[in-house]
Every structure is written in C-alpha cells, then in structure tokens.
Amino acid sequence: MILDSFDRIDRALPTDPAQAIGSAKELVEATAKTVLIELGVPFEDKTAKLRALIDLAQRALLLHPQTQVPGPDGSNAVKRILGGLMSVAMGLGELRNEGWGTGHAPAASRAGLRPRHAHLAVGAAHTWCQLILDTLADPAAPWRKHATNGLPSGSTT
C-alpha cells in the first residue's frame, strides 16, 4: 500500500495537486498502520482517525515528544522537532479534510490550489514517513529496548 501511494503521488504531483494532497495523507495513514501492525499495537482499522494513528505510531516507536528516553531521542531539541513533525503530519489530514485534497468532495472549487501546495503536503508526508520507517527498521532504536513501546498503560487506540 505504501508503494502504491508513492506511485499515485508521483503521477499526480505535476498536474493534480488535490490528488497529490489526498495521496500524501493516505501515505501517512498507511505508514502509521504499518508500524502499528508490525509492532502488534491494536487499533480500529476502519474507524481510527489520522490524528490517533499518528499519535499511536509515534508513541509505539518512542518518538512522541512526551516520551522520556535516554540519548539524542530524549533531548529537548529532538522533542521539539518531533512535536513539530507530528503537527505537520496531522495537518495533512486537516488540509485534505478541508477539501483541498481528494477523498472529501469540496463544497466549492479548489480555486488557487497550486503545485506548490501539493509539494508542501508531499514533502511533509515524505519527511514524517521516512522518520517513522527508518526508526522502525533501526536495530538500535530505543523502542526495541522497551516492552511497552511508549504506549501509556491501558492504551489500546
């Protein structure tokens, strides 16, 4: 599914900004779900909101800004970046839900939507997904050393 999203984005970016924005949101969602499935973190596949999926994925990988971990991942600077990146990823869902991306029919035309807006969304999605997938694959990532995967006790979704 992640590779399908990359293909859709590549095709849409130059000529269909709305499709690229919608696909960028889908890429973030697919990446978050992949992490949660790989780590065995339960979530509601059909009803989970993007915000919740992003939050769960970052917590599971100990990349949530509120997570306390030793080393560079726990530094104030990295936490600030992680918080900003989390907000950026969540903003993709908001941008798409406001009618600027495919998936929700806009009440009015998408007048003014330009390729630069699509590049903004795609760049944001790429940055978030790259960090998440790199951390999932990193054999030395802090999440591998913690059994709870950064989830608060009793958290399921």
UniProtKB/TrEMBL annotation:
Under Pfam families, the record lists:
Abi_C
Q: Which InterPro entries match?
A: Abi-like_C
Q: Tell me the domain of life.
A: Bacteria
The Abortive infection protein-like C-terminal domain, residue ranges: 53-134
**What's the name of the protein?**
Abortive infection protein-like C-terminal domain-containing protein
